[in-house]
Amino acid sequence: MSTSSSNIKNIVESLADLLAQRNKRIAFAESATAGYLMSAFACCVHYEVLSGGIVCYDASIKTNLLGVDPKMIDANSAESTPVTEAITQGLRVLIPADYYIGITGLLKPGEVKARQNR
Hints:
Blueprint: H1 3-21, E1 26-30, H2 36-42, E2 50-55, H3 59-64, H4 70-76, H5 81-94, E3 99-103, H6 111-116
Parallel strand pairs: 1-2, 1-3
């Protein structure tokens, strides 16, 4: 296991412990991380804190399932703050939880410039 994977596992375990102590649950809408954090929570000791989540890597999942307006994606990018907030709000309608996390991002250098040149 790499150092960063070990660090993430430790952070997830600590957060899951805290959520379990407080009887709270968490849900995710993951784009760039493609379910990585949901998987980490599912594999920890207090897996029961994970309500569930959606992997919304493709924009069509953001629009069709999570209710993000396609115009918002066109105007801002699928990785923008407004879209991240919108996928998190869409998640609230689908999955009962106490905390909702939306994750987007660009994973390759230069991807923003390539998208702007389309």
